[in-house]
Amino acid sequence: MADKKRIGILTSGGDCAGLNAAIRAVVHRAIRTYGWEVYGIRDGSLGLMRRPLEFEKLDLRLFTGNILRMGGTILGTTNKGDPFAFPMPDGTRKDMSQDFVDGVKELGLDALIVIGGDGSMRILRQLCQRGGIQMVGIPKTIDNDVHLTEYSIGFTTAVNVAVEALDRLQPTAASHHRVMILEVMGRDAGHIALNSGIAGGADVVLIPEIPYTLDGIVKKLNEVRDEGRNHALVVVAEGVKTEDGQKVTLTWKGGESRYGGIGHWLSDRLATLVQAETRVTVLGHVQRGGMPSMRDRLIGSAFGVHAVDLLAAGKVDRMVAWQNRGVVDVPIDDVVGVYRCVDPDGPLVTTAEGVGIYVGDRQAAQSHRQRPDVKVGE
Ligand code: F6P
Asked: What are residue 173's phi and psi, to 5 degrees?
Protein backbone atom coordinates (compact mmCIF):
# COMPACT_ATOMS: atom_id res chain seq x y z
CA MET A 1 0.00 0.00 0.00
CA ALA A 2 2.86 2.38 -0.79
CA ASP A 3 0.37 4.93 -2.17
CA LYS A 4 -1.77 4.92 0.95
CA LYS A 5 -0.84 7.65 3.28
CA ARG A 6 -2.67 7.44 6.59
CA ILE A 7 -2.12 4.71 9.17
CA GLY A 8 -3.31 4.34 12.75
CA ILE A 9 -1.44 2.76 15.64
CA LEU A 10 -2.83 1.61 18.96
CA THR A 11 -1.64 -0.26 22.04
CA SER A 12 -4.07 -2.76 23.53
CA GLY A 13 -4.22 -4.90 26.68
CA GLY A 14 -1.90 -4.58 29.69
CA ASP A 15 0.97 -2.14 29.27
CA CYS A 16 4.63 -3.16 29.47
CA ALA A 17 8.07 -1.70 28.88
CA GLY A 18 9.15 -1.28 25.25
CA LEU A 19 5.83 -0.19 23.74
CA ASN A 20 7.11 3.33 23.16
CA ALA A 21 10.13 1.99 21.28
CA ALA A 22 7.75 0.26 18.87
CA ILE A 23 5.54 3.35 18.48
CA ARG A 24 8.62 5.46 17.82
CA ALA A 25 9.88 3.01 15.19
CA VAL A 26 6.54 2.95 13.38
CA VAL A 27 6.44 6.74 13.22
CA HIS A 28 10.04 7.05 12.03
CA ARG A 29 9.67 4.40 9.34
CA ALA A 30 6.28 5.57 8.11
CA ILE A 31 7.28 9.22 7.85
CA ARG A 32 10.95 9.00 6.89
CA THR A 33 10.79 6.14 4.43
CA TYR A 34 7.28 6.35 3.01
CA GLY A 35 6.09 9.88 3.73
CA TRP A 36 2.90 8.65 5.38
CA GLU A 37 0.82 10.19 8.15
CA VAL A 38 0.56 8.33 11.47
CA TYR A 39 -2.32 8.69 13.90
CA GLY A 40 -1.94 7.44 17.46
CA ILE A 41 -5.23 6.14 18.85
CA ARG A 42 -5.87 6.86 22.54
CA ASP A 43 -6.52 4.04 25.02
CA GLY A 44 -6.55 1.10 22.63
CA SER A 45 -9.83 0.41 20.85
CA LEU A 46 -11.60 2.98 23.08
CA GLY A 47 -10.21 5.92 21.11
CA LEU A 48 -12.01 4.72 18.00
CA MET A 49 -15.26 3.93 19.82
CA ARG A 50 -15.60 7.27 21.61
CA ARG A 51 -17.16 10.31 20.02
CA PRO A 52 -15.48 12.59 19.38
CA LEU A 53 -12.73 10.19 18.33
CA GLU A 54 -9.65 10.30 20.56
CA PHE A 55 -6.40 10.34 18.67
CA GLU A 56 -3.25 12.35 18.07
CA LYS A 57 -1.31 12.92 14.90
CA LEU A 58 2.19 11.64 15.59
CA ASP A 59 5.16 13.34 14.04
CA LEU A 60 8.90 13.18 14.48
CA ARG A 61 8.98 16.24 16.76
CA LEU A 62 7.29 14.17 19.44
CA PHE A 63 10.35 11.98 19.79
CA THR A 64 12.69 14.37 21.50
CA GLY A 65 14.96 11.67 22.91
CA ASN A 66 13.33 10.30 26.04
CA ILE A 67 10.39 8.32 24.68
CA LEU A 68 12.50 5.31 23.66
CA ARG A 69 13.55 5.01 27.31
CA MET A 70 10.11 5.41 28.85
CA GLY A 71 7.99 2.59 30.26
CA GLY A 72 4.23 2.41 29.70
CA THR A 73 2.62 3.60 26.49
CA ILE A 74 2.36 7.21 25.43
CA LEU A 75 -0.93 6.32 23.71
CA GLY A 76 -2.66 4.77 26.74
CA THR A 77 -4.27 1.35 26.64
CA THR A 78 -7.11 -0.75 28.02
CA ASN A 79 -7.67 -4.39 28.83
CA LYS A 80 -11.38 -3.98 29.39
CA GLY A 81 -12.75 -2.61 26.16
CA ASP A 82 -13.76 -5.61 24.02
CA PRO A 83 -15.92 -3.81 21.42
CA PHE A 84 -17.94 -7.00 20.78
CA ALA A 85 -18.99 -7.13 24.43
CA PHE A 86 -18.37 -3.68 25.79
CA PRO A 87 -19.05 -3.29 29.53
CA MET A 88 -21.82 -0.76 30.19
CA PRO A 89 -22.24 1.17 33.48
CA ASP A 90 -25.32 -0.93 34.41
CA GLY A 91 -23.27 -4.14 34.24
CA THR A 92 -24.65 -5.32 30.88
CA ARG A 93 -22.53 -5.84 27.75
CA LYS A 94 -23.16 -4.19 24.40
CA ASP A 95 -21.82 -4.92 20.92
CA MET A 96 -20.06 -1.69 19.90
CA SER A 97 -17.95 -3.15 17.11
CA GLN A 98 -19.63 -0.96 14.49
CA ASP A 99 -18.58 2.17 16.41
CA PHE A 100 -14.98 0.98 16.14
CA VAL A 101 -15.27 0.29 12.42
CA ASP A 102 -16.98 3.65 11.83
CA GLY A 103 -14.21 5.32 13.84
CA VAL A 104 -11.55 3.94 11.52
CA LYS A 105 -13.51 5.19 8.51
CA GLU A 106 -14.17 8.61 10.06
CA LEU A 107 -10.46 9.07 10.67
CA GLY A 108 -9.76 7.99 7.10
CA LEU A 109 -7.27 5.31 8.07
CA ASP A 110 -5.95 3.01 5.36
CA ALA A 111 -4.54 0.51 7.83
CA LEU A 112 -4.07 -0.15 11.51
CA ILE A 113 -1.00 -1.33 13.41
CA VAL A 114 -2.08 -3.08 16.60
CA ILE A 115 0.37 -3.68 19.44
CA GLY A 116 -1.16 -6.30 21.70
CA GLY A 117 -1.10 -9.74 23.24
CA ASP A 118 -2.98 -12.81 22.13
CA GLY A 119 -6.40 -11.62 23.37
CA SER A 120 -6.10 -8.17 21.78
CA MET A 121 -4.79 -9.66 18.56
CA ARG A 122 -7.83 -11.97 18.33
CA ILE A 123 -10.39 -9.24 19.02
CA LEU A 124 -8.75 -6.62 16.78
CA ARG A 125 -8.39 -9.18 13.99
CA GLN A 126 -12.14 -9.89 14.14
CA LEU A 127 -12.93 -6.18 14.17
CA CYS A 128 -10.70 -5.47 11.22
CA GLN A 129 -12.16 -8.42 9.29
CA ARG A 130 -15.63 -7.11 9.98
CA GLY A 131 -14.78 -3.62 8.75
CA GLY A 132 -12.50 -4.62 5.87
CA ILE A 133 -9.63 -2.85 7.64
CA GLN A 134 -6.04 -3.75 6.82
CA MET A 135 -4.16 -4.78 9.93
CA VAL A 136 -0.66 -5.72 11.03
CA GLY A 137 0.03 -6.92 14.59
CA ILE A 138 3.00 -6.43 16.91
CA PRO A 139 3.21 -8.86 19.86
CA LYS A 140 3.65 -7.51 23.38
CA THR A 141 3.13 -9.07 26.78
CA ILE A 142 5.34 -9.60 29.79
CA ASP A 143 3.90 -13.14 29.90
CA ASN A 144 5.66 -14.03 26.60
CA ASP A 145 2.84 -16.41 25.74
CA VAL A 146 2.16 -15.28 22.16
CA HIS A 147 2.54 -18.16 19.72
CA LEU A 148 5.19 -18.15 16.96
CA THR A 149 7.43 -15.48 18.45
CA GLU A 150 10.37 -16.16 20.73
CA TYR A 151 10.00 -12.76 22.36
CA SER A 152 7.12 -10.40 22.88
CA ILE A 153 7.78 -6.79 23.88
CA GLY A 154 7.94 -6.42 27.67
CA PHE A 155 9.10 -9.89 28.62
CA THR A 156 12.79 -9.34 29.22
CA THR A 157 12.19 -6.16 31.21
CA ALA A 158 9.81 -8.07 33.47
CA VAL A 159 12.35 -10.88 33.89
CA ASN A 160 15.08 -8.35 34.71
CA VAL A 161 12.87 -6.84 37.42
CA ALA A 162 12.24 -10.29 38.92
CA VAL A 163 15.97 -11.10 38.84
CA GLU A 164 16.74 -7.82 40.56
CA ALA A 165 14.15 -8.68 43.22
CA LEU A 166 15.91 -12.01 43.83
CA ASP A 167 19.27 -10.22 44.01
CA ARG A 168 17.80 -8.00 46.72
CA LEU A 169 16.02 -10.80 48.56
CA GLN A 170 19.06 -13.09 48.80
CA PRO A 171 21.14 -10.99 51.24
CA THR A 172 18.19 -10.31 53.52
CA ALA A 173 17.22 -14.00 53.37
CA ALA A 174 20.79 -14.91 54.36
CA SER A 175 20.86 -12.35 57.18
CA HIS A 176 17.70 -13.74 58.78
CA HIS A 177 18.03 -17.42 57.77
CA ARG A 178 14.72 -17.23 55.93
CA VAL A 179 12.91 -18.81 53.00
CA MET A 180 11.93 -15.96 50.71
CA ILE A 181 9.01 -16.55 48.35
CA LEU A 182 8.71 -14.33 45.29
CA GLU A 183 5.37 -14.37 43.43
CA VAL A 184 5.72 -13.22 39.83
CA MET A 185 3.24 -12.52 37.04
CA GLY A 186 2.70 -14.54 33.88
CA ARG A 187 -0.94 -15.72 33.97
CA ASP A 188 -0.99 -19.35 32.78
CA ALA A 189 2.58 -19.39 31.47
CA GLY A 190 5.67 -19.80 33.63
CA HIS A 191 8.19 -18.02 31.40
CA ILE A 192 8.88 -15.13 33.81
CA ALA A 193 9.21 -17.48 36.80
CA LEU A 194 11.46 -19.98 35.04
CA ASN A 195 13.76 -17.43 33.39
CA SER A 196 14.12 -15.28 36.50
CA GLY A 197 14.44 -18.28 38.79
CA ILE A 198 17.41 -19.63 36.85
CA ALA A 199 19.07 -16.22 36.45
CA GLY A 200 18.36 -15.22 40.06
CA GLY A 201 19.61 -18.39 41.74
CA ALA A 202 16.31 -19.75 43.07
CA ASP A 203 16.11 -23.11 44.81
CA VAL A 204 12.49 -23.78 43.90
CA VAL A 205 10.61 -22.55 40.81
CA LEU A 206 6.94 -23.39 40.50
CA ILE A 207 5.21 -22.82 37.15
CA PRO A 208 1.66 -23.60 36.01
CA GLU A 209 2.89 -26.09 33.40
CA ILE A 210 4.46 -28.53 35.86
CA PRO A 211 2.70 -30.09 38.88
CA TYR A 212 4.51 -30.01 42.21
CA THR A 213 4.08 -31.42 45.70
CA LEU A 214 4.63 -29.70 49.03
CA ASP A 215 6.69 -32.77 49.98
CA GLY A 216 8.93 -32.11 46.97
CA ILE A 217 9.46 -28.49 48.00
CA VAL A 218 10.16 -29.41 51.64
CA LYS A 219 12.64 -32.08 50.53
CA LYS A 220 14.50 -29.50 48.45
CA LEU A 221 14.53 -26.90 51.24
CA ASN A 222 15.85 -29.50 53.71
CA GLU A 223 18.53 -30.45 51.19
CA VAL A 224 19.61 -26.81 50.94
CA ARG A 225 19.87 -26.62 54.75
CA ASP A 226 21.75 -29.94 54.94
CA GLU A 227 24.23 -28.67 52.35
CA GLY A 228 25.02 -25.84 54.75
CA ARG A 229 23.05 -22.89 53.39
CA ASN A 230 20.92 -21.02 55.90
CA HIS A 231 18.40 -19.52 53.50
CA ALA A 232 16.52 -20.28 50.29
CA LEU A 233 14.73 -18.53 47.44
CA VAL A 234 11.43 -19.74 45.99
CA VAL A 235 9.86 -18.28 42.84
CA VAL A 236 6.21 -19.03 42.18
CA ALA A 237 4.25 -17.95 39.11
CA GLU A 238 0.91 -16.36 39.93
CA GLY A 239 -0.96 -18.96 37.85
CA VAL A 240 0.30 -21.93 39.91
CA LYS A 241 -2.53 -23.80 41.60
CA THR A 242 -2.68 -25.07 45.16
CA GLU A 243 -1.43 -28.60 45.66
CA ASP A 244 -4.98 -29.91 45.24
CA GLY A 245 -5.51 -28.00 42.01
CA GLN A 246 -7.39 -24.85 43.11
CA LYS A 247 -6.74 -21.54 41.34
CA VAL A 248 -5.77 -18.70 43.68
CA THR A 249 -7.39 -15.47 42.55
CA LEU A 250 -8.53 -12.08 43.77
CA THR A 251 -12.06 -11.13 42.77
CA TRP A 252 -13.50 -7.63 42.76
CA LYS A 253 -17.04 -6.35 43.11
CA GLY A 254 -18.59 -7.01 39.71
CA GLY A 255 -16.96 -10.41 39.39
CA GLU A 256 -13.72 -9.47 37.64
CA SER A 257 -10.80 -11.51 38.89
CA ARG A 258 -7.02 -11.80 38.53
CA TYR A 259 -4.46 -14.28 39.72
CA GLY A 260 -2.87 -13.43 43.05
CA GLY A 261 -2.22 -15.04 46.41
CA ILE A 262 -0.42 -18.30 45.67
CA GLY A 263 2.75 -16.93 47.32
CA HIS A 264 0.93 -16.41 50.62
CA TRP A 265 -0.83 -19.77 50.33
CA LEU A 266 2.55 -21.43 49.90
CA SER A 267 4.11 -19.46 52.75
CA ASP A 268 1.32 -20.52 55.13
CA ARG A 269 1.90 -24.19 54.24
CA LEU A 270 5.70 -24.08 54.35
CA ALA A 271 5.72 -22.22 57.68
CA THR A 272 4.49 -25.39 59.38
CA LEU A 273 6.61 -27.77 57.32
CA VAL A 274 10.13 -26.30 57.33
CA GLN A 275 12.37 -25.11 60.15
CA ALA A 276 12.72 -21.59 58.85
CA GLU A 277 10.68 -18.43 58.74
CA THR A 278 9.04 -17.66 55.43
CA ARG A 279 8.35 -14.25 53.93
CA VAL A 280 6.49 -13.34 50.75
CA THR A 281 7.07 -10.65 48.13
CA VAL A 282 4.39 -10.17 45.48
CA LEU A 283 6.11 -8.34 42.64
CA GLY A 284 2.95 -7.39 40.74
CA HIS A 285 2.90 -4.46 38.36
CA VAL A 286 6.46 -3.43 39.20
CA GLN A 287 7.29 -5.96 36.47
CA ARG A 288 5.40 -3.96 33.89
CA GLY A 289 6.83 -0.51 34.54
CA GLY A 290 10.18 1.19 34.43
CA MET A 291 12.78 1.59 31.74
CA PRO A 292 12.65 -1.05 29.01
CA SER A 293 15.52 -3.51 28.74
CA MET A 294 17.90 -3.36 25.81
CA ARG A 295 16.09 -6.34 24.21
CA ASP A 296 12.64 -4.79 24.54
CA ARG A 297 13.90 -1.60 22.91
CA LEU A 298 15.59 -3.61 20.19
CA ILE A 299 12.70 -5.91 19.29
CA GLY A 300 10.24 -3.03 19.71
CA SER A 301 12.23 -1.05 17.14
CA ALA A 302 12.62 -4.00 14.76
CA PHE A 303 8.94 -4.88 15.06
CA GLY A 304 7.84 -1.31 14.39
CA VAL A 305 9.98 -0.92 11.26
CA HIS A 306 8.95 -4.33 9.91
CA ALA A 307 5.25 -3.70 10.56
CA VAL A 308 5.38 -0.55 8.41
CA ASP A 309 7.36 -2.35 5.70
CA LEU A 310 4.68 -5.05 5.60
CA LEU A 311 1.99 -2.46 4.97
CA ALA A 312 4.12 -0.85 2.29
CA ALA A 313 4.48 -4.25 0.60
CA GLY A 314 0.73 -4.85 0.81
CA LYS A 315 1.21 -7.74 3.23
CA VAL A 316 -1.59 -7.50 5.76
CA ASP A 317 -3.28 -9.69 8.39
CA ARG A 318 0.18 -10.63 9.58
CA MET A 319 1.96 -10.37 12.90
CA VAL A 320 5.63 -9.50 13.16
CA ALA A 321 7.60 -12.00 15.22
CA TRP A 322 11.09 -12.70 16.52
CA GLN A 323 12.57 -15.98 15.32
CA ASN A 324 16.14 -17.18 14.95
CA ARG A 325 17.76 -13.87 15.87
CA GLY A 326 15.68 -11.70 13.61
CA VAL A 327 12.34 -10.22 12.75
CA VAL A 328 9.94 -12.20 10.53
CA ASP A 329 6.19 -12.18 9.98
CA VAL A 330 3.51 -14.83 10.34
CA PRO A 331 -0.23 -14.98 9.58
CA ILE A 332 -2.25 -13.57 12.48
CA ASP A 333 -4.70 -16.44 12.07
CA ASP A 334 -1.92 -18.91 12.94
CA VAL A 335 -1.25 -17.04 16.17
CA VAL A 336 -4.62 -16.30 17.75
CA GLY A 337 -6.19 -18.86 20.01
CA VAL A 338 -2.95 -20.76 20.52
CA TYR A 339 -1.26 -20.42 23.87
CA ARG A 340 2.52 -20.64 24.11
CA CYS A 341 3.56 -22.04 27.45
CA VAL A 342 6.79 -23.41 28.89
CA ASP A 343 7.86 -26.74 27.42
CA PRO A 344 8.12 -29.14 30.39
CA ASP A 345 10.63 -31.14 28.29
CA GLY A 346 12.49 -28.08 27.03
CA PRO A 347 16.05 -26.92 27.57
CA LEU A 348 15.27 -24.32 30.22
CA VAL A 349 13.57 -26.83 32.50
CA THR A 350 16.59 -29.10 31.99
CA THR A 351 18.85 -26.17 32.87
CA ALA A 352 16.84 -25.45 36.01
CA GLU A 353 17.05 -29.06 37.12
CA GLY A 354 20.72 -29.15 36.20
CA VAL A 355 21.53 -26.32 38.60
CA GLY A 356 19.59 -28.03 41.35
CA ILE A 357 16.28 -26.17 41.20
CA TYR A 358 13.15 -28.07 42.23
CA VAL A 359 10.68 -27.43 39.39
CA GLY A 360 8.09 -30.05 40.29
CA ASP A 361 7.40 -33.33 38.58
CA ARG A 362 7.82 -32.85 34.85
CA GLN A 363 6.75 -36.41 34.06
CA ALA A 364 3.34 -35.46 35.40
CA ALA A 365 3.01 -32.46 33.07
CA GLN A 366 1.01 -34.44 30.53
CA SER A 367 -2.05 -32.23 30.45
CA HIS A 368 -0.12 -29.34 28.88
CA ARG A 369 1.45 -31.55 26.24
CA GLN A 370 -1.92 -32.85 25.15
CA ARG A 371 -3.98 -29.67 24.88
CA PRO A 372 -4.46 -28.77 21.19
CA ASP A 373 -4.75 -25.04 21.96
CA VAL A 374 -1.44 -25.01 23.80
CA LYS A 375 1.92 -24.95 22.10
CA VAL A 376 5.00 -25.39 24.16
CA GLY A 377 8.06 -23.29 23.62
CA GLU A 378 10.81 -21.51 25.44
O1 F6P B 1 -0.99 -10.24 30.86
C2 F6P B 1 -0.15 -9.36 31.51
C3 F6P B 1 -0.42 -9.33 32.99
O4 F6P B 1 0.49 -8.46 33.62
C5 F6P B 1 -0.43 -10.69 33.66
O6 F6P B 1 0.87 -11.17 33.89
C7 F6P B 1 -1.25 -10.40 34.89
O8 F6P B 1 -1.88 -11.57 35.37
C9 F6P B 1 -2.28 -9.42 34.38
O10 F6P B 1 -1.74 -8.82 33.23
C11 F6P B 1 -2.65 -8.34 35.37
O12 F6P B 1 -3.67 -7.58 34.83
P13 F6P B 1 -4.13 -6.18 35.41
O14 F6P B 1 -3.16 -5.15 34.95
O15 F6P B 1 -5.49 -5.98 34.84
O16 F6P B 1 -4.12 -6.29 36.90
From this structure: -60, -45
Give yes or no: residues 45 and 146 share one domain.
yes
**pTM attached to this predicted model:** 0.96
- Atom number in ligand 1 closest to CA 143: 6
| Ligand 1 nearest atom to the CA of residue 142, by list position | 2
> Cβ(119) to ligand 1 under 6 A?
no
pLDDT score for 364: 85
Q: What is the reported pLDDT for 376?
A: 72
Radius of gyration of the chain (CA): 22
Active site residue 309: no
DSSP states of 225-273 as a string? HHTT-S-EEEEEETTPPPTTS---EEE-TTS-EEE--HHHHHHHHHHHH
Do 165 and 218 reside in the same domain of the chain?
Answer: yes
Tell me how far apart the alpha carbons of residues 287 and 70 are, in angstroms, rounded to a whole number.
14
Q: At what angle do helices 118-131 and 97-106 cross, to 10 degrees?
A: 70
Residue 18 near ligand 1, beta carbon < 6 Å: no
Q: Residue 281: CB within 6 Å of ligand 1?
A: no
- Would you put residue 66 in left (φ > 0), alpha (ψ -120 to 50) or beta? alpha
Minimum mean pLDDT range among 1-5, 130-134, 216-220, 265-269: 1-5
- Do 15 and 77 form a contact (C-beta atoms < 8 A)? yes
Give residue 140 CA to ligand 1 midpoint distance, Å: 12
220 and 357 in a single domain? The answer is yes
Ligand 1 site, residue 158, Cβ cutoff 6 A = no
Range of the domain at 196: 158-288+343-369
Distance in angstroms (rounded) separating the CA atoms of residues 283 and 237: 10
Q: Looking at the DSSP assignment, which residues form a beta bridge with residue 328?
A: 321
The answer on 10 and 105 residing in a single domain is yes
Q: Which atom of ligand 1 is nearest to the CA of 239?
A: 8
Which residue's CA is the nearest one to ligand 1's atom 8?
A: 187
